[in-house]
Design brief:
Layout (H helix, E strand, L loop, with lengths): L21 H10 L14 H8 L2 E4 L2 E4 L6 E2 L17 H13 L3 H4 L9 H7 L1
Antiparallel strand pairs: 1-2, 2-3
Length: about 130
Amino acid sequence: MSLVNVAYASALTWGDRTKTRLEDQALVPMFGDHPVELGLGPPGTAMLARLRSVDVYCGHRGRTVADGPDRGVGHDNPNKSPIVKGFPLTAEQKADLIAFLNALTDNDLLNDTRFANPWTAQLEEAR
């Protein structure tokens, strides 16, 4: 199966064929134990509790945490890389950027029957 129609695969990962929902597969690198990737432990641990308890606001100026050990304004963080900076766009530049991003979606490719759902014929035959 090509990468183009991988969306039709019955499983989302080679490591565990039981992961058929994106929400479940996304947890594997964080909390999986076979193989251990990030090693954050099973769901429900202190890390998840901490994430759920922190009031975080992410805006265009950086992450702001209201309280707790990580409280502060991300924009003012002294460890923020000076390399990463925002930049202004004119209306024309913004329109050009949007046009470029839209060009990344190839409707001809999306509608090409060579890349259609490989299981459609089987589904139609079963009816």
